[in-house]
Specification:
With 300 residues, this protein is of the alpha/beta class. The chain folds into two domains: 143 residues, no CATH class; 133 residues, no CATH class. 58% of the residues lie in helices and 7% in strands. The chain contains 13 helices and five strands. It has a five-stranded mixed beta sheet with strand order 1-2-3-4-5, sandwiched between helices. Strand 2 and strand 3 form a beta hairpin.
Length: 300
């Protein structure tokens, strides 16, 4: 589910949309959910009381972001459009759904129930946000951009989602995590754990995900000590069970497994955050071999 600042911004921005901009917004989400073959926008033509059709559900949709503050005026508009839908579309598309730019009031539920026989046919702001939350990262990013919501809020929300999901999984019973007193010099640890041919590439990946690692670190530090320990133990346990004969193979296997769990759209931005999470754990010396200690006076 959407969390924190991102949820607040979405509620504010979507709730502020009125009339045509709200209709355009809902139509764009329905295209993302159902695809061009599964949804049709009727507004450019004479719509007959509908703004669009969801073909697989046999459902006509009406979008209502009213400027009118009183329910009496809202009732007339909704009722008039519904009567037009009944006259032109109901025989072919018997299901009907009303989208509102706010949470429905008891009056909205009663009106829709009186018109269509089910108050469940009215979807308010909460249901719209749920549709957004169910979309892939790429679509959510597009929505946030269209609403001028800072992209870092979406990124932070994704990191929180991954960490919360890991926290919900049972904590390992074995003492997997060995906490280092201080993080080792990164290049030395990469050299210790990766093949010579991979060292430069891995160091570049670590550098390129530095900003994302800082976000991951910020989420870690905002957690309780108990949750942080649980989370680190969970990741280290997953690493220990990941297939592979070498550290590099196990690291890549775990990155792939997390990608399949959290990045079903295969988006580069999400892949970078998954790598950042694992690199953060790696650089904190929770997985992988520690580099050889530097001999005093030798620099090696």
């Amino acid at each position: 589910m959407l969390r924190g600042a991102l949820e607040t911004h979405l509620k504010t921005q979507v709730g502020a949309l009125r009339e045509m901009p709200f209709q355009d917004f809902v139509v764009s989400i329905l295209y993302m959910v159902h695809g061009a073959a599964g949804f049709s926008n009727l507004r450019p033509t004479r719509d007959g009381g509908l703004d669009g059709i969801i073909f697989e559900e046999g459902c006509g949709i009406a979008c209502y972001g009213p400027d009118q503050p009183t329910f009496t005026k809202q009732r007339k508009k909704i009722t008039d459009d519904y009567n037009m839908y009944v006259a032109h579309w109901k025989a072919q598309y018997p299901n009907w759904r009303l989208f509102l730019n706010k949470e429905p009031s008891p009056d909205h539920f009663k009106l829709v129930n009186d018109l269509h026989g089910s108050g469940q046919s009215v979807w308010g702001l909460g249901r719209i946000l749920q549709m957004i939350d169910d979309l892939s990262f790429g679509f959510r990013r597009r929505i946030c951009k269209s609403l001028q919501i800072p992209e870092e809020l979406l990124s932070s929300d994704f990191v929180q989602m991954v960490l919360n999901d890991l926290l919900e999984r049972p904590a390992p019973t074995a003492p997997w995590v060995k906490y280092a007193r201080s993080a080792p010099e990164i290049e030395a640890k990469v050299i210790k754990n990766y093949s010579p041919a991979s060292v430069d590439t891995v160091l570049q990946q670590i550098a390129l995900t530095a900003a994302q690692q800082m976000e991951v670190h910020a989420e870690f530090t905002s957690m309780s000590v108990e949750d942080t320990g649980h989370l680190k133990a969970r990741i280290v346990s997953d690493f220990a069970q990941a297939p592979g004969a070498t550290f590099e193979e196990k690291f890549n296997s775990l990155a792939k497994a997390y990608g399949q769990r959290y990045n079903y759209g295969q988006h580069d931005e999400v892949r970078e955050y998954i790598e950042a999470l694992l690199f953060h754990v790696f650089t904190q010396c929770l997985i992988g071999l520690e580099p050889d200690p530097v001999q005093p006076g030798t620099g090696t």
